[in-house]
């Protein structure tokens, strides 16, 4: 019996509507009777407490990082690996990153940004990747986690254990990229998704969160398409229209110090013009680093890091905040290189022998989505994907087989748990489906043992 409890995009603010209403009431009180308002000692105490609460909430984790008060005037973020940029004579305001020549644009790195509070999701996430991620052209699966959390994952990816995984797996401490104090919030997660471009060995990397669960076979040839006019590969992109979160765009333009809508126009009459979505997403190393080079030029080395780490409190309350993907897309468009590294799914020919895929499909964004109907829909989707993967294994040695019954498949579902859906429910309903599939595969005994140990330590026991 399935659970009967009860966005397209991930919410990124914990400031409730009640707080916003409270602010408006306070402002109204100040305007109506400023003298009597401040004479009231009780009101002064309330205002003081209110400001303190806001300062704390401003840095509270909105996703994966442990609770930690964010103190804007004490925030200090600095490089571990210097960001090397050179001037671009054609675009003086947009310096280019200095890139090594050892990168590959036909292979893919998978980066999972996670932290201790989200490790309980990893058994399902990894069981799904083991079932669906074709190891061909996968350079590495990389976990980027806080330094204090590395030891929790090491038992499953030790030098002995990694021999069992079908792809190279590494657990990387995020302090090899940035050192930071007095900030432990959602900003860091977004910053790391750009800064990880400093260490990936491929031009393209697939960003996943711990709640991104594969539901259909994943083949790199469906994600990276060779340009007909050159030998370069381009990553698929299919995002939302700018209208979905206009405040994110305007705040990102403000941070990049560019004229509003100069590179990505906002046409209210046409909301279907694609831009970029949310995680999961495939990023270009070149564009990600060029985004950071622009910010470094504008604000100075080190200073731009603290600029990113500190959203303006009064603007954040009302939803004005930059995101990694809006900064990335704006940079790609302003420098006119986005189409060099990305191709929109809609531009791919339907007659292409390689099936078209979307990174994200039907997902659970809140408890309102967690209905019996949607639970059954997800179970059916997962089982259909596993049946097709078995077909590929049996008939094509695991290589892609095009499903001609549909024009598009979704590769991932996002199973959020920050909005009153216990992640243990996801594990209870979906983990056994993947384990059943893996039990039917050759040489999977050690991997199943690793996954089950991971389940006992991370998903069931408190760590």
Can you put this structure into words, describing what you see?
The chain is an alpha/beta fold and 463 residues long. It folds into two domains: 17-58; 85-460, Spore Coat Polysaccharide Biosynthesis Protein SpsA, Chain A (Alpha-Beta Complex). It is built from 16 helices and 15 strands. The chain has helices at 17-32, 34-39, 41-58, 122-132, 150-153, 186-195, 220-223, 246-255, 285-299, 303-309, 313-316, 324-334, 338-341, 372-396, 423-439, 445-460, and strands at 76-79, 85-86, 96-97, 104-113, 138-145, 169-173, 178-181, 202-209, 212-214, 224-226, 233-237, 281-284, 342-344, 356-360, 408-414. The strands form five sheets. It has a five-stranded mixed sheet with strand order 6-5-4-8-12. Strands 9-15-14 form a three-stranded mixed sheet. The longest helix has 25 residues, at 372-396. 40% of the residues are buried. The model is unreliable at 1-16 and 58-67 (pLDDT under 50).
Shape summary: globular
Instruction: Report the CATH C-level class of the largest domain.
Output: Alpha Beta
Termini, distance in Å? 29 Å
- Strand fraction: 15-25%
Radius of gyration: 23 Å
Structural domains: how many: 2
Fraction of residues in helices?
Answer: 25-40%
| Secondary structure: number of strands | 15
Low-confidence stretches: 1-16, 58-67
Mean pLDDT: 83
CATH structural architecture of the largest domain: Alpha-Beta Complex
């Amino acid at each position: 019996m399935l659970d009967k409890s009860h966005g397209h995009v991930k919410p990124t603010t914990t400031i409730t509507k009640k707080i916003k209403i409270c602010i408006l009431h306070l402002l109204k009180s100040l305007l109506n009777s400023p003298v009597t308002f401040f004479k009231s000692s009780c009101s002064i105490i309330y205002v003081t407490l209110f400001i303190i609460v806001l300062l704390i909430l401003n840095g509270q984790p909105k996703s994966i990082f442990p609770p930690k008060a964010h103190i804007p005037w004490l925030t200090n973020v600095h490089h571990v690996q210097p960001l090397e940029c050179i001037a671009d004579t054609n675009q003086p305001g947009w310096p280019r990153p200095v890139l090594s020549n050892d990168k590959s644009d036909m292979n893919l790195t998978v980066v999972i940004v996670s932290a201790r509070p989200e490790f309980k999701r990893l058994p399902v996430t990894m069981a799904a990747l083991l079932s669906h991620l074709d190891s061909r052209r996968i350079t590495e699966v990389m976990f980027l986690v806080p330094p204090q959390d590395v030891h929790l994952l090491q038992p499953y990816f030790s030098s002995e254990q990694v021999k069992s995984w079908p792809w190279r797996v590494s657990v990387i401490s995020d302090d090899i990229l940035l050192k930071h104090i007095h900030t432990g919030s959602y900003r860091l997660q977004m910053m790391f998704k750009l800064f990880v471009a400093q260490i990936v060995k491929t031009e393209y990397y697939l960003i996943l969160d711990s709640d991104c669960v594969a539901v259909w076979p994943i083949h790199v040839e469906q994600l990276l398409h060779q340009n007909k006019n050159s030998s370069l590969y381009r990553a698929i992109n299919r995002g939302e229209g700018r209208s979905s979160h206009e405040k994110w765009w305007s705040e990102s333009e403000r941070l990049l110090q560019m004229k509003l809508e100069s590179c990505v126009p906002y046409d209210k009459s046409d909301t279907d013009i694609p831009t970029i979505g949310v995680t999961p997403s495939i990023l270009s190393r070149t564009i990600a680093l060029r985004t950071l080079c622009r910010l470094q030029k504008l604000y100075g080395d080190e200073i731009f890091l603290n600029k990113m780490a500190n959203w303006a409190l009064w603007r954040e309350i009302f939803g004005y905040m930059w995101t990694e993907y809006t900064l990335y897309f704006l940079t790609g468009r302003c420098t006119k290189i986005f189409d060099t590294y990305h191709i929109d799914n809609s531009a791919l020919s339907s007659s292409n022998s390689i099936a078209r895929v979307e990174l994200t499909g039907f997902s659970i964004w809140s408890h309102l989505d967690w209905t019996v109907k949607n639970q059954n829909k997800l179970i059916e989707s997962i089982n259909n994907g596993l049946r097709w993967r078995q077909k590929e294994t049996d008939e094509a040695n695991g290589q892609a087989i095009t499903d001609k019954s549909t024009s598009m498949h979704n590769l991932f579902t996002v199973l959020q748990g920050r909005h009153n859906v216990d992640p243990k429910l996801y594990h209870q309903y979906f983990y056994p489906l993947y384990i059943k599939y893996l039990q039917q595969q050759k040489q999977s005994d050690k991997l199943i043992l690793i996954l089950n140990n991971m389940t006992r330590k991370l998903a069931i026991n408190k760590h």
